[in-house]
Design brief:
Strand content: 15-25%
Order of helices and strands: EEEEEEEEEHHHHEHHEEEEEEHEEEEH
CATH architecture of one domain: 2-Layer Sandwich
Distance between the termini: 49 Å
Radius of gyration: 25 Å
CATH superfamily of one domain: Chloramphenicol acetyltransferase-like domain
Length: 444
């Protein structure tokens, strides 16, 4: 089972493309896995025959578990990643599937599992922020001590300071058992663990006479629940709200769309949305207020020199936030095309990890649902998120005291007070408002 992120501890096999006895060659897709963020196909890196499948479709396995064996023929010798034929070995016991157990390394034997191609994957904004590491190796903390992904996740959930632990794994590696022992003894704790909520049995006991349907929680919903609860408990949010007049943007958008070149079938080359202007304006505002283009990294603040803006995309069972990189430098039509592609692949859960990780800020737009205003929860490690409401015609008082109607929308900027103080957040939001009300300023 490959690892797709530093804190991804397990994956679910949704479908096998090969069966026992099928011949495979490097590049052939073996199976599809689903994590809390993506579904992706895992290819073979060795030539041979599927000798054994240990984890069936629909089952979950921890990272590093042996899910299948490739041999020179079904039930015979195994083929290593280098194509070397090993001696015949007896079947190995399947690895434990429990969520609380550490991902097990492949047992010592001549039989070797087929490794998945290694990819260097950046960090996920929905997951704990750490120094980027090679995907298939354990992460490291200060001093060069390595930590398994499951141990790091358990430490984060229980407020354990990993730098104060002594690892019992190979070469001093900190494993899940070390963290569990620290939790039990109360040692190395940095913060009090969050109080546990009601159990499923306790909740159901409150509705003895009410019919209901039980819907299992998948990895994505479980991660969203944990991450958002952590964000509200650990990130000191404050909120800034203002109204923006969009008459000029709406006129510019109409003219730009009318000027779009049309293909042979009459399809325009682009179709700008209000959200495209929002992305561009926020990116330019971050570039012009660089102190707000930053994230909290515990003992330091990371300030960025380019504006990477995440945009929340709703999908069945949750949401993903693909990131538009260097959005301050891109044209509106380029941003529009990129977001259309992101949205389509996000709903199919086909985004690559590098496409939804990073960014100092994000946008959540519920205007299409008629929501006037709302406050969004920051996705750590990002330090801000802009909640965008619906555009509506509203009465506005003019300078001479008269009243006229204008197209306006309400936006709310959620800020992490550790990075963005009130005055800085107000400066960023004021710059955003100025760019939206005078859009020519973001085009030069």
């Amino acid at each position: 089972m490959p690892q797709l992120g530093e804190t991804v501890a397990e994956g679910k096999i949704t479908v096998w493309f090969k069966a026992v006895g099928d011949a495979v060659k490097p590049g052939d897709n073996l199976f599809e896995i689903e994590t809390d963020k993506v579904s992706m196909e895992v290819p073979a890196t060795s030539k041979g025959v599927i000798a054994e499948i240990r984890v069936n479709a629909g089952e979950i396995a921890p990272v590093g578990a042996v899910v299948a064996v490739i041999g020179d023929k079904a039930g015979a010798t195994a083929v290593s990643a280098k194509g070397e034929v090993a001696a015949t070995a007896s079947p190995l016991p399947s690895p434990p599937m429990g969520r609380g157990s550490a991902p097990s390394a492949p047992p010592t034997s001549n039989v070797q599992s087929t490794p998945v191609q290694k990819q260097s994957v950046p960090l996920d904004p929905f997951m704990e922020v750490r120094t980027p590491t090679q995907n298939f190796g354990p992460a490291k903390i200060a001093g060069g001590v390595s930590v398994t992904p499951l141990a790091r996740r358990l430490a984060g959930e229980n407020g354990i300071d990993l730098s104060r632990l002594k690892g019992s794994g190979p070469r001093g590696r900190i494993v899940a058992q070390d963290v569990e022992q620290a939790v039990g003894s109360g040692a190395a704790r940095t913060t009090a663990a969050a109080p546990a909520g009601m159990t499923a049995a306790q909740v159901k006991a409150l509705f003895p006479d009410t019919p209901y349907e039980e819907i299992p929680v998948d990895n994505m919903r479980r991660t969203i629940a944990r991450r958002m609860a952590d964000a509200k408990q650990t990130v000191p949010h404050f909120y800034l709200t203002l109204d923006i007049t969009l008459d000029t943007v709406l006129k510019l958008r109409e003219e730009a769309n009318a000027a779009a070149r049309k293909g042979a079938d009459g399809t325009p080359s682009y179709k700008l949305s209000i959200n495209d202007f929002v992305i561009k304006a926020l990116a330019v505002a971050l570039a012009r207020v660089p102190a707000a283009n930053a994230v909290w990294a515990e003992d330091r603040i990371l300030r960025f020199t380019q504006s990477d803006v995440g945009v929340a995309v709703a999908m069945e069972g949750g949401l993903l936030t693909p990131v538009v990189r260097q959005a301050e430098r891109k044209t509106l039509s380029a941003i529009s095309a990129e977001m259309q592609d992101f949205a389509a692949r996000a709903r199919e859960r086909k985004l690559k990890p590098a496409e939804y990780q990073g960014g100092a800020s994000a946008i959540s737009n519920l205007g299409m649902y008629g929501i006037r205003e709302f406050s969004a929860i920051i996705n750590p490690p990002q330090s801000t998120i802009l909640a965008v409401g619906a555009v509506s015609r509203r009465p506005v008082e003019a300078a001479d005291g008269s009243v006229a109607f204008a197209s306006q929308m309400t936006v709310t900027l959620s800020c992490d007070h550790r990075v963005v103080d009130g005055a800085l957040g107000a400066e960023l939001l004021a710059e955003f408002k100025s760019l939206m009300e005078s859009p020519a300023r973001m085009l030069v």
